[in-house]
Amino acid sequence: MASSAPVPVSNSMLDLDSASVSNMDINKLLTHEIFSILETKFLFGGFDDPKLPSHLDASTKHLAGKVRILSIDGAGATDGLLAAKSLVHLEASLRKKSGNPNACIAEYFDLAAGTGVGGVLAALLFTRGKDGAPIFTASEALKFLTDNRGRIMQSGPTGLLRRVFRPAKAEKLFRKIFGECTLKDTLKPVLIPCYDLTTRAPFVFSRADAMEIDGYDFKMKDVCAATLADPSVELRSVDGQTKIAAIGGGIVMSNPTAAAITHVLNNKQEFPFCNGVEDLLVVSLGNGESDSGPGSQTTFRTRALIKIAGEGASDTVDQAVSMAFGECRSSNYVRIQANSATGKIHGKKDDQLRAAEEMLGQKSVESVLFQGKRLGQSSHLEKLESVAGEVIKEQEIRKTRILPTVVLKQGSASSPRTSSATSLSTLSSN
Question: What is the pTM of this model?
Fold first, then answer.
């Protein structure tokens, strides 16, 4: 198909008062020029300079929509159960409000970021299975987490036994779930951090990087092992060119929300028209505060350092992000986090799930930069139900828009690699 010359748009067309005409009328007026831009810049010129000409910025910005980000914290006091329960309620609300009984989290979010157990949840919900759908639903991910906490979390044996057996169990479990799937096999962009002891710097596993350079494509089983690693694990990229010594990402990025926002705002190839926080809809799921109580096996000083590095960093990110959204934070930024008075979840599986459910029924906790925390007006469950309506609304509006909100990079393979994911009953720790 030959590239057509841009169709001139008169000043009168660009000066139209948007309040006096419908979005459909505006779309019709700008159709010729926008399609010319899409054709010349995206189809033929790649994404080197996807920015629209300055005279179109104001007229078309509101037509591109909001990029929907899902961010999931590291373990915290609930070992991931609070976030997993939140995802179950969110997916249930999406199915109810959309009328689609098979609706899934990945369908309604454009990017997922997760650290530690949050990274595992993101991988489970966004990795493509044999049928093209995510390998796990939110309910299945919650069951996986409750059945296998001892294999993947630090709640098992302490000392040398934990350091020897837990990584081996986790690696075997992840291999069974993900098979040979890699970052390229995720349905949407994902960001899962760890810390690389080789370079002494954070390392973020990214689908966008994997699509560009084979040296950044890693198997999903290795990605999950890396973001949880304690002690460190060594792994290589699929092509063997990149080698890292990974330790869990909780210390360097317990709350990956800021990293996810930065990625979207700077990734103009996949999010060409996202220029500020007003173009985002962010759902950030916390997992309770770090466990540093009397029952911990570490020294008081170590517990204090863990609390500062983990919980403190997570709260600081929440406060800073909340302030960055300014006037639109009530509509564009949703944070789910347990009250600071909530303790660590113990007991049998049913008791653990009941405790997480009770946390979601509490009033939400809102962070205010340099002013601490305050109780919100709504419960976590009410906030999740509300945000489900917002992401569905965004999904429906996109059907009538001309400008693409997201332009995903595509790999060379037309079909996903074979996954060895099996039924949940075979993954139980019993």
Answer: 0.77
